[in-house]
């Protein structure tokens, strides 16, 4: 009996020792201190116009806010680090706009160029650009569902626009066509539609001027699929027909184009409006461009207001930091930035800025 009791006591003692060891080990793990070299997650350190520039998220009520803006139909992945008095904002424009499966992070270049304001029109929408302009009486334009008039209309900023042309022909008939235009950004895939309407009412169309290898083509006439070949043919009668083709490229690009054809009058057609992209003025490319804004003493200074064409920013590190309150992934970008910022307010000169940054952006 005594032996059994001693065995129980020994087991109890061993159990107590194990509990103490586990407890001490757990306490030691909780008290592990981070190395001194670990910086705060988000910060800006440098100079702006000769004065010190320093904001650290978590210090002096400073915080890092991330968001995805949409500017002229294009995502801008951006962040805002501020302490309530001084604001430092950065953003990167999306790229590869015609590649639905494109992943921003894997496509993001290591070196980013600065975006700039465009003082000249990228394109001017006008009647005389149409190949059948002699049969067109007038065109009323809409851009992103906004009526912009029946005369010439200029678009200045790069973007992805929905452009509608309400065309009145010289015989008094009219029709409207809407197409997406990508302006000031690279296109990974492009092509044109070549139609032919025979005297006996047979409509034929084919793909021409393809810029990349094509994997698949789907043709639709008034919403019904009529062919999956590189060309189509179908009988048509008098009246308007909407011809659409979806082209899938080997590099992942996808583009859809539409045109209106009158089966009873060969002159009354409206070309797919994306043909207007070829009249874009200037070699402006905003894919993955960077912008910076500083708001100090209530005055906004922006990199797009200055000439930063000779400058670029090299990304040192991109690190996943979690999910924000909107459920979007957030990342920290580390880089060294040197640029010139300017205000739109008259009398304010260009101001140099140089800083090291660990900045946050979100990607939906």
List keywords for this structure.
364 residues, Immunoglobulin-like, 2 domains, 5-stranded antiparallel beta sheet, elongated, disordered N terminus
Structure overview:
By secondary structure, this protein is mainly beta. The protein has two domains: 43-115 and 286-363, no CATH class; 123-279, Immunoglobulins (Immunoglobulin-like, Sandwich). 9% of the residues lie in helices and 49% in strands. The protein has helices at residues 2-30, 104-107, and strands at residues 43-48, 51-56, 63-71, 74-82, 86-93, 111-113, 123-125, 136-143, 146-149, 153-155, 159-169, 174-183, 192-197, 202-208, 214-221, 224-227, 231-235, 240-249, 254-262, 290-296, 299-302, 312-323, 329-341, 351-363. Strands 2-1-24-23-22-6 form a six-stranded antiparallel sheet, with no helix packed on it. A five-stranded antiparallel sheet has the order 3-4-5-20-21, with no helix packed on it. Strands 9-8-11-12 form a four-stranded antiparallel sheet, with no helix packed on it. The radius of gyration is 30 Å and the shape is elongated. The N and C termini lie far apart (71 Å). Residues 1-39 have low confidence and may be disordered.
SSE layout:
Elements: H1 2-30, E1 43-48, E2 51-56, E3 63-71, E4 74-82, E5 86-93, H2 104-107, E6 111-113, E7 123-125, E8 136-143, E9 146-149, E10 153-155, E11 159-169, E12 174-183, E13 192-197, E14 202-208, E15 214-221, E16 224-227, E17 231-235, E18 240-249, E19 254-262, E20 290-296, E21 299-302, E22 312-323, E23 329-341, E24 351-363
Run of helices and strands: HEEEEEHEEEEEEEEEEEEEEEEEEE
Structurally, the number of domains stands at 2
First-to-last CA distance: 71 Å
* Biggest sheet descriptor: 6 strands, antiparallel
Write down how many β-strands occur, each being a DSSP E stretch of 2 or more residues. Answer: 24
Helical stretch count? 2
Quick one: overall form? Answer: elongated
Measured on Cα atoms, how large is the radius of gyration? Answer: 30 Å
Strand content: over 45%
Question: What would CATH call the architecture of the largest domain?
Answer: Sandwich
Helix content: under 10%
CATH class descriptor of the largest domain:
Mainly Beta
Q: Which structural class best describes the helix and strand composition? A: mainly beta
């Amino acid at each position: 009996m005594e032996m059994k009791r001693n065995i129980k006591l020994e087991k109890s003692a061993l159990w107590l020792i194990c509990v103490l060891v586990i407890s001490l080990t757990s306490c030691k793990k909780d008290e592990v201190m981070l190395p001194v070299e670990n910086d705060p997650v988000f910060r800006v350190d440098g100079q702006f116009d000769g004065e010190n520039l320093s904001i650290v998220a978590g210090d002096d009520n400073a915080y890092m806010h991330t968001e995805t803006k949409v500017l002229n139909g294009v995502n801008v992945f951006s962040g805002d680090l501020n302490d309530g008095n001084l604001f430092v904002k950065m953003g990167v424009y999306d790229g590869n706009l015609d590649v639905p499966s494109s992943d921003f992070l894997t496509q993001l270049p290591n070196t980013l160029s600065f975006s700039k304001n465009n003082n000249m029109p990228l394109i001017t929408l006008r009647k005389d650009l149409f190949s059948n302009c002699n049969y067109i009486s007038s065109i009323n334009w809409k851009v992103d569902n906004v009526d912009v008039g029946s005369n010439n209309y200029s678009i200045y900023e790069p973007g992805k626009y929905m452009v509608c042309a309400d065309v009145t022909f010289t015989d008094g008939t009219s029709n409207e066509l809407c197409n997406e235009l990508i302006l000031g950004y690279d296109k990974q895939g492009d092509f044109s539609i070549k139609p032919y309407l025979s005297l006996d009412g047979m409509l034929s169309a084919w793909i021409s001027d393809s810029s990349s290898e094509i994997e698949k083509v789907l043709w639709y006439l008034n919403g019904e699929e009529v062919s999956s070949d590189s060309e189509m043919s179908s009988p048509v009668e008098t009246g308007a027909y909407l011809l659409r083709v979806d082209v899938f490229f080997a590099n992942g690009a996808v583009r859809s184009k539409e045109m209106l054809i009158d089966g009873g009058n060969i002159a009354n057609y409206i070309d797919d409006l994306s043909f207007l992209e070829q009249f874009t003025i200037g070699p402006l490319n905003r894919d993955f461009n960077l912008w910076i804004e500083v708001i100090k003493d209530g005055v906004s200074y922006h990199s797009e207001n200055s000439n930063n064409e000779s400058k670029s920013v090299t990304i040192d590190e991109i690190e996943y930091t979690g999910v924000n309150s909107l459920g979007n992934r957030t990342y920290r970008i580390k880089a060294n930035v040197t640029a010139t910022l300017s205000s739109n307010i008259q009398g304010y000169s260009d101001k140099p800025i140089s800083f090291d940054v660990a900045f946050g952006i979100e990607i939906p």
